[in-house]
Design brief:
The chain is α+β, with helices and mostly antiparallel strands and about 180 residues long. It has helices spanning about 20-30, 50-65, 80-85, 115, 145, 165-175, and strands at about 1-5, 35-40, 45, 75, 100-105, 125-130, 135-140, 160-165. Helices cover about 30% and strands about 25% of the residues.
Length: about 180
Amino acid sequence: MKIVGLLRGINVGKSVKVPMKELKALVEEQGVTNVVTYLNSGNVVFDSETPPTALRTILEAKLEQQFGQRIPLLLLEGEAIVAIRDAIPPEWQNNETEQTYVAYLFPEADQPELIQELPVKRQYIDLRYVPNALLWNIKRADYNRSQITKIAGHASYSQMTTRNVNTARNLAKMCET
């Protein structure tokens, strides 16, 4: 089965640096096949017969051992990644007038009620829950008014990892091949 690994909080600012070549090698050492990394933001796609829950424990331990810091890792089956992509309205884009993001949810935060708890102004943002993710679209003119940055202060923020819509769509495409 296809599995997508999403590392949280790497290669930005002062966070831990994880070269994709090293990530690929670390994942390959676990006996999985067809390992491909995507961009430099901690995306890895591979084939495995081991369930994601078992692999997560092993890979997080190996990441901590190799990089000296705990790195949260979300593993989702390819079918889930495709379902998330398919739930994104096709007209939602990242361009000069709008921003679209997917916040992939770790199991601890994956609940529909989460959407009601987030401190955003919903009149300025289209925010939707789908299993395993939150989807949002903001007109750039309304970005500050939406208060989307306040999500970073919410208790669930450490249990999500965000990718822009282009990355979300490309990861899904990788799961279909």
